[in-house]
Structures are given as structure tokens and as C-alpha cells.
UniProtKB/TrEMBL annotation, chains A, B:
UniProt cross-references to InterPro entries, sorted A to Z: ADH-like_C, ADH_N_2, GroES-like_sf, MDR_fam, NAD(P)-bd_dom_sf
Lineage: Eukaryota, Viridiplantae, Streptophyta, Embryophyta, Tracheophyta
Alphabetical UniProt keywords: Oxidoreductase
Gene source species: Hevea brasiliensis
Recorded superkingdom: Eukaryota
Protein name: Enoyl reductase (ER) domain-containing protein
UniProt domain Alcohol dehydrogenase-like C-terminal: residue ranges: 170-302
Keyword Hydrolase part of the UniProt annotation: no
């Protein structure tokens, strides 16, 4: 274990330049620099050792040159490490909210050690009987995303028909389980037989299908939803959204969490059947988890007992070592991961 | 005036067959049949003389072979008269809610005299100091549409930036005036210089532009909304929607009232920039006026004094005679009308 004030080597995952198209491992570079394990004079921050890093689809958005006025999401800097959600251990703190030894989750850089100069947005981990990596997933950002998107945006009612795309991912697997706990009928789509099996056998989806094996997504949805879809939890966009629009029911709700199929396209695909939202009175709403973190305590109160009782499960795909970061992250966009993709930087 | 029991000639506007593409006058036919001015034995309906018929974009939807399960909107029958909103006078009634001489508005057939067998959904006209034709517009379905869409779906706040497309139409001209009364900044688009002048000089829009003269709708919107758009009242769809998505502000709202640019296309246009609704947390909601008629009394209470005080104005485009119906209706889809398009069937 490194001691305070020591200069240690610090591996980092650097964005080489803005990405267009499908991100490749070679768009990222693992470099080794060094860091002095000491908070600079006058800095009110904390020094952490990163333990787990979270591979999330939204990261792709930050890998391009974004120009979105006031959207509170900005681009990474080429030549600098990328950042994202992670779990870390506090080595030293000059901030009153944190002390040495605390475990936290929140935004950190993709590197072994980080100086976090504005730690106010970090969450302190209280429930340490859980696997720490869960704080990149079910107990972290994706958990609140699934919870807010499903319960706040979709307002599910017992007996409703729910469809989840990218259903075995970090968020989708939770939405499906929340839907079942709410008494809904839920179908998920995913991109491999292994994932479809997980959905049906591990997460308790009523049905699941491999979208890559469907010639006609509209026909697939008609097969699984002869009565139509009340709630669509949108993770993929593009052709799937179009097929869903054709199959929505009156007063359906679409929570738009992500559109992973579109992030790597220079020109996004067209969506053709939007006029359905008029006659069917559909509400379609985009959301970002940042707006819902006030629900985190309430969410933990709901989900922790359910995890302990085995009523909600969570599947992770762990890549070992920061060196595996570029492959793990870029694998997300071709669906290589099975479950929530995590990079293990260090054991506690 | 025809007397009870008399057989009179009855002109009708007939749909010849299902329409694809832009509706032409020749898709409709004015025929002359006859009707006995007597309610058949055992029928609990009313017999009316139609005075005004309303040309509304949604009618286009019913001119094709719709197959929308449970959407409460069905196709017209080729060979039969089309129907729509109208204002009529009761000639005879076997229904307890209506008596001879009552004026009503609601769904009626495009013909001179109609037997309405289920008059329960009709509205009785109480305020007769208003021009009767207003009950096809500001005091009828388009009025409630504008009111519900703007106030219920968009929840406007003082100072917000509002954009209305098809802004000089039956609904748009009202939305713009409601927005001004709510302390919003409002810009409208329309398809001719005459309409743009109306928007600015008659309806009090802050700005207006002719979309046909803009090479780049995105640039036009950037010009009129340097701060972006909070509320979009959507009447047209297609390319305009895409340009709006690029210019929406965080937590913007889009009330989807119609997509008139798409109704005549066999294959709708793609919408490419939907992913904006995630980062910008946009809510996009389709609605139908049927769900909001319970607000009609509240709406009348608001709007009638404002009309009487001249604080809200309404512009109509009146076509004289049922024979002019096919031209008036099809003109709507090329923007020939200036203001709310009404067909005058008969004077009271």
C-alpha cells in the first residue's frame, strides 16, 4: 500500500482524439505517469484510489466534440484521461465531508489514483455488506436511472405491458425486475442467445428475444405484444423505436434513457412513425439521472432489502485491470458485455 | 324553409375512394340526393340543418384506410358522405336533451340535412352573441385543442420561448395569442407573406417567418430563438420537427397536435435528431382533443370575455356553399386557406 506523500506510478486511460463512428480500442491509450499522494496546499479536495470504473453508454457521447448549449454534459479533452462513474477509497481528505478510509462512488478519472478537487457530488458508501462494484451499477447511477425512469417517467400500473430494449444491460436488467415486482408483463430484447437466456431465466422477464435474429422487428413485437405496449423503456433508438411506435397502445409512455444504436453513427437513422404519438396520445420523455439523485435514499431503502432477500439480482461483467479498460468500454458498443460492464482497477 | 315531413333535396360531399398522396378535389364528389325531414319511428335522434362545416387537418387521416386498433378514430366509408365538426340547427328532436330551434356543434355529415342518431356528444350553443361559425373554430374543437395543448400539455411559464408551426391556422393562431397572454415570447411559422403579416400584425406574435423562404430551418430557428425554444406547439412534423429538436432548451416541452406535412405522404419522412430529447430532457406528448372536452366550460369562461373585449381575435376563411367543400378541404393541405377554413352550407 502506498503511503502518504509518496510518488507512485499512475496508469491512465487517455482519449487520443475525438471519435467518429464506432469507438475502437486504439482511440484510447493506456499510459503510465506518476502522482504524488498528497493533496496540494490550499486544495479542498480528496485523494482517492480508484477500485472500480463503470462502462456506460453515455460515455460515447462525451468522446465526440459536443456542442450542446447548457446541457450540462461536455466533451472529454483529447490527451487527457476520460472520466466516468467509479468506486474509490479515500486516501487523504481536506474536505470536511470525507475522511481517510471512506468509500465513495461518483465521477472520477480513469486512472489508478485521482485527486478530486470538488468532491461535493460524490456519494459516501454506507452499506458495505454489498459487493462494492454494485455501486457502479444497481446501487449507483444505473440503479437510480432505472428507478427514476421506470417509476417516475413511466408510472407503471399493475397488469401493463412493458418492453425493455438492451434489456440485459446495466439499466435494462433492473427495469425488467422492477416491472415484474410491479405486476407488469415484461419482454426484453437483447443481442445474443446467452443474454436472452439470462433475461428469461435469471431476471424473470416473461419473454425475451434476440433482435439480431428478427427480420422484422414490428412482427416480433406483434408476436410478444398482441395487445400492444403500454410502457417502452428506450435504450437503443433507431429501428427499434420505429417498430415500438407501431405497437404502442393508447396513452402509452416511452422513457427515453438512451439510444445506443445511434451514438456511433455520423448521421443518425430516421424515425418514421412518430405520427403515431398523436392518435395514440403517447408521452415520450427523455431524462437524465442527474435530475433524480434526490431519490437515491428512497431507492436504497427499496432496493437493499430486495437484494439481501434475493428478490432482485444483478449480473456484472468484470474486466480485470485498468489495461482492460479500452476493450471493456468499446466492447459495450458491440454488445460484447453480458450484464453491467465494470473495470476492476484494484481490490480494496 | 322546409317544413316537417317534407322531402327535400340534400346535397352531400362523398368520398369516392381511399386517398393516397395529396387529396384532390376529384377524390370527393358533390351529389344530390333527398331526405325526408322526419325522424324515423323509434329513433332517438335529432334532425338538423347544417350551417357551417369545419375543414380540419385530421380529416385527411380518415380519408385513408386506417388500421389503428383502439385509437377511436376510424376511416370514412368510400361512397358515403364524409363527416366532421359542424354547426347545425335542430329541425326536429326525439332526444330529451335537444329541442327544435336549438343550435348545436359537433360531429355531423357533410350534407345539407343530417339525421344524427346518437346526439349525446353534441354541444348545445348557449352564447349566441358570437358569430356561429366560431363554433367550428375558436369556440369549438380547435379552441379546446389549443387550450388543452398549450396549457395542459405545455404548462407555460411567463418569459418562456414558444414556437408555433402552422401558426395562422385554426389552432395555431389561438396558441400564439394564449402564449402572449401568458407572458411568453412567441414566434410562428406559416407558408406565405400574407400569413406572416397576419401573425405579426393581427395576432400579436413577436416574430413570424415564412418557412417556404428558409433554406435552412435550423438557421431560421437559431435566428429567432438565440436562447432556444422552451415550448413547441407541433402542427406540421417532418423537417420542421427536426430543426426544432436541434433548438430546444433543457426541459422543453413539445405538444404534438398534428403533423400536417406528413399526412399526404405514402412513406413518412424520417426524423433524425430525436436523441436530443435525452440530454435536453424533453417531453414530447401527443394528444387528442377528445380527452379534454371536460375543460370546455372552463375554456369558454376564459375565452368569451376575451373575445368580447377584443383581447383575442379570430380569423376565418369562409368558402360559400357545400359545392365549395371539396376545394376548401383539399386547399387546407396546400395551405390555400388564410385562417380557419370553414364551409358555409346555409345561413341560419
Amino acid at each position: 500500500m502506498a503511503s502518504e506523500g509518496e510518488v507512485v506510478s499512475n496508469k491512465q486511460v487517455i482519449l487520443k482524439e475525438y471519435v467518429s463512428g464506432l469507438p475502437k480500442e486504439s482511440d484510447l491509450q493506456v499510459t503510465t505517469g506518476s502522482i504524488k499522494l498528497k493533496i496540494p496546499e490550499g486544495c479542498n479536495g480528496i485523494l482517492v484510489k480508484n477500485l472500480y470504473l463503470s462502462c456506460d453508454p453515455y460515455i460515447r457521447t462525451r468522446m465526440k466534440n459536443l456542442q450542446l448549449k447548457g446541457a450540462h454534459v461536455d466533451s472529454f479533452q483529447p490527451g487527457s484521461p476520460i472520466s466516468g462513474y467509479g468506486v474509490a477509497k479515500v486516501l487523504e481528505s481536506e474536505h470536511p465531508n470525507f475522511k481517510k478510509g471512506d468509500l465513495i462512488w461518483g465521477i472520477t478519472d480513469w486512472e489508478e489514483y485521482s485527486l478530486i478537487t470538488e468532491p461535493e457530488t460524490l456519494f459516501k458508501i454506507q452499506d458495505k455488506d454489498m459487493p462494492l462494484s454494485y455501486y457502479t451499477g444497481i446501487l449507483g447511477m444505473p440503479g437510480v436511472t432505472a428507478y427514476a425512469g421506470f417509476f417516475e417517467i413511466c408510472s407503471p400500473k399493475k397488469g401493463e405491458y412493458v418492453f425493455v430494449s438492451a434489456a440485459s444491460g446495466a439499466v435494462g436488467q433492473l427495469v425488467g425486475q422492477f416491472a415484474k415486482l410491479s405486476g407488469c408483463y415484461v419482454v426484453g430484447s437483447a443481442g445474443s442467445k446467452e443474454k436472452v437466456d439470462l433475461l428469461k431465466n435469471k431476471f424473470g422477464f416473461d419473454e425475451a428475444f434476440n433482435y439480431k435474429e428478427e427480420q422484422d422487428l414490428n412482427a416480433a413485437l406483434q408476436r410478444y405484444f398482441p395487445e400492444g405496449i403500454d410502457i417502452y423503456f428506450e435504450n437503443v433508438g433507431g429501428k427499434m423505436l420505429d417498430a415500438v411506435l407501431l405497437n404502442m397502445r393508447i396513452r402509452g409512455r416511452i422513457a427515453v434513457c438512451g439510444m445506443i444504436s445511434q451514438y456511433n453513427l455520423d448521421q443518425p437513422e430516421g424515425v418514421y412513425y412518430l405520427a403515431n404519438i398523436i392518435l395514440k396520445r403517447i408521452r415520450m420523455e427523455g431524462f437524465l439521472v442527474f435530475d433524480y439523485y434526490h431519490l437515491y435514499p428512497k431507492y436504497l431503502e427499496m432496493v437493499l432489502p430486495k437484494i439481501r432477500e434475493g428478490k432482485i439480482v444483478y449480473v456484472e461483467d468484470k474486466a480485470e485491470g485498468l489495461e482492460s479498460g479500452p476493450a471493456a468500454l468499446t466492447g459495450l458498443f458491440v454488445g460484447r458485455n453480458v450484464g453491467k460492464q465494470v473495470v476492476v482497477v484494484a481490490d480494496e
